[in-house]
Protein 1
Amino acid sequence: MTKKRTLTGYRPTGKLHLGHWFGNLQNMLQMQHDYDAYYFIADFHALTSDWADPSGISQYTEEMVLDWCAAGLDPDVCTIYRQSDVPEVAELMLYFSMVLPMSWLERTPSYKEQRAQITTKDLGNVGFFLYPALQAADIAIVLADAVPVGEDQLPHLELTREIVRRFNNTYGEFLREPQAIIATQGARVPGTDGRKMSKSYGNSIFISDSEPDIRAKVMSFMTDPARKLKTDPGDPDICPLHSVHKLIAPDEEIAQWDACCRSAECGCVMHKRKLADDLVSYLGAFQTRRAELAAIPGYAAEVLAAGAAKARPITSGVVAACRELMGLDPRTELTAGIERRDAAAAAAALESHPSFLDAE
Ligand code: ADP
Ligand code: TRP
């Protein structure tokens, strides 16, 4: 039986933090074994917001490969690639832009929020407006069934399903409607200031942070804002420090901190010191492995080259099929002869093609 496909992407606009680690990476680690998995670095997406200063993209791309692989993604098991190495995705986005009403993009919550919140970058460009269309193309281009993401990405997944439905209604049932896979714990990991941990907010603990940095950041973590004095009872349910500790400590230990905080027996500083100790030892094995991979010359470039070679037979096959379903002339042997709207023939042509099957 062929495995279902999964895909997800991260923008190379910063280092990986605990929000990625718990909100997403743990699912990706498990899913690389259960699915035919495609994980990519979304450098086109990074350009949509960082077009005026793209200087960090290349370095963050390499760092992300190291972070992912040190965390346990195995490039022999899953396919790790860079979005711009698969330019077919830009072609599919163009096709999606034909069926996609502008009003669907205008109402995307992330578009409205980020334009309002991010004032240091010019987000008035068309590329940023098309961000969700590009994301839909990323997902559809490998016919992904399941997409592990954090909670903030749900509107993008819903839009992807809508675009796929509209495409299929117009040109025949070919593309798949993907499901979002959300972490059961850590769907929205808070940062040091209590907002969602995000590299854009300067509130992140990065998984490659040094021990002194981890300790300093944990000491600045926000706790229950109503707890002014150590003698005031605290409420762990609204304490961001508590939410993060829950992700790494055993349930019994968390229950003890919970009771200790509610009765004001333990202060926040004591709790912070414990979380800092726990995080330093929790991330130790990852950091050792990361240093080993970083010492291998050309490691990231090799992973990306191998990943692109595995992904492209699929992405070019899917794009060729979409092109012809939409009525443009065939130009590959793969889908030659498929009639417009004959989606069943397109799917069958791909499924029986050796390069498409080999990739699974
Ligand atoms: P950032 O918000 O730091 O720029 P990305 O947009 O690159 O992060 O996110 C990559 C993936 O990690 C997405 O699936 C996103 O939903 C998830 N993610 C990011 N931050 C968090 C968080 N604080 N909690 C849970 N998931 C997160
Ligand atoms: N928008 C995602 C984020 O900000 C990144 C992304 C781009 C993505 N393309 C994707 C995630 C496709 C899942 C599937 O994190």
Protein 2
Amino acid sequence: MVKVDLSGTATFFDAAELDFAAAAQAHRTLADKSGAGSDFTGWLELPKRIKETELKGILNAAAKIRSRSKALVVIGIGGSYLGARGAIELLRPIPSADDPKIFFVGNGLSPDALNDMLEQLGDDDFDVNVISKSGTTLEPAVSFRIFRKILKEKYGAAAKKHIFATTDAKKGVLKSLADAEGWECFVVPDDVGGRFSVLSAVGLLPMAVAGIDVKTVINTAIAELEALDLRSPENPAWQYAAARQYLYHNGRGIEILGCYEPSFRFMAEWWKQLYGESEGKNGIGIFPASVEFTADLHSMGQYIQDGPRTLIETIVRFEKPRRDFSVPFEMGDADGLNYLAGKNLSDICLTASEAVKSAHIAGGVPNIVVTVPSRDEAGFASLVCFFELACAISGYMSGVNPFDQPGVEAYKKNMFKMLGKPE
Ligand code: PA5
């Protein structure tokens, strides 16, 4: 289980002030499926359900793609994109020689980005995994139309064998197209919203193609969700949710999620969507932002240390690096760094993180540390379960429905009108 360390909040509140009764109530509401949006809480059972049904199909499709293609083009946006990208960049930041390259498209409308991607793809054999629960989202739908044409030109009648559609089990444009064309399909479950779907085929197929051990991800998630069902203030999800809510109600409207691993960047993007879309509604909600340390200490460090005191800082820490590096000794010590010679980079990084923590606390920024044992499949699964559960609890504590996103429709309405979409 991940650990939450609230010692960096001690000068801002007393632990006794945290409203664990509200966290307990929110957890009960979630588990009983009696709260707002309860028909979108299937993610709580998702790992168990996946194990029994779909995992074999996902692994077979991934093996097929890995054996015949040099690349997988994943088409999707928001919850149909960020989890897979977060996982792949965290766990496979550099693909091995046997791993297909994974390209992500359909998450914007930039022609330059698409052309750059196609240039990188070149003449390589590739497959497409189009992911859209609704099947109607404009960005992926336009990209998919473009890729259907490219596939047809490249593979002719066999193009349909190179398309894998992850969508609703029964309805939607993508499902109808898939049925008509005979594409292999995977399901986005009805009771799981996009931003909670990374442990479904939405995330698992691209992850498996990238060489991630998805069985370990699923097995860890099953165990983690069981452990996180703990109904006690010792539950790290309660601690994180209660601390965030306390701080929000005491003037802290922005939370920055930081990590000392650059490979965490897209996990932070995933987290931003999870928390922003779940909590930012009805005129309330913490604004989720992210930083990459130590790089951003040289850009955002000034603001964090000295800007308006409205921040909460949450740091994700992996206990062990995959491989370490030690600082070499140098005769003459011209750069003055021999005081570090022989030290591991991981130890220097840990010391830096402790120095940053105490400086930021002294500067008036409460600090929460979320610790994960290692940057691997198990660590990824634990983090996902922890952040999803804490998000739902925190959302219910704040009084919103954490599972809807009515606000994202406003821009779509305008855009479709301006683009002349028929009614
Ligand atoms: O969390 C969400 O529901 C959204 O981010 C959706 O995942 C995103 O809008 C993509 O939707 P769809 O999968 O229907 O294309």
